[in-house]
Amino acid sequence: MPETPYSGRFAAGEHLFAIRVYFEDTDAGGVVYHASYLRFMERARSDMMRLAGVDQRGAMERGDGNYVVYAMALRFRAPARLDDALVVRSRVGNMKGAQCVVHQRVMRGSETVIEAEVSVALIGPDGRPKRQPRAWIETFERLKTED
Question: Looking at domain 9-145, does it have CATH number 3.10.129.10?
Fold first, then answer.
């Protein structure tokens, strides 16, 4: 039986994505390097969308566009360290036109390590904002209301 990559899961409208901190994620002191959190959250957002049925690769290949991060606000709360087990919790926030906000928290157990508000926009092949497909908006709206 072939192995399939881990994609996380949805619970109460929130996507949960478990990760472990590896040596490559840390600085010389064994503390997670700040840019590593961005990779953790990007993986979680990508898998959240895939699991929700949003085919980003297909959209790119068809020339329908792709999401880009245009703003991000971060708040570091506590350091994570080598071998920590973390969970990235992602929830879709406000949406309009081409834009979507995703609220993310990286957790170690019940402790918040970092919080982020990530603003993304769908852009077309010409690099200009493009309205999100109705089916994607409906999916995100459904996820927002699940409890």
Answer: yes
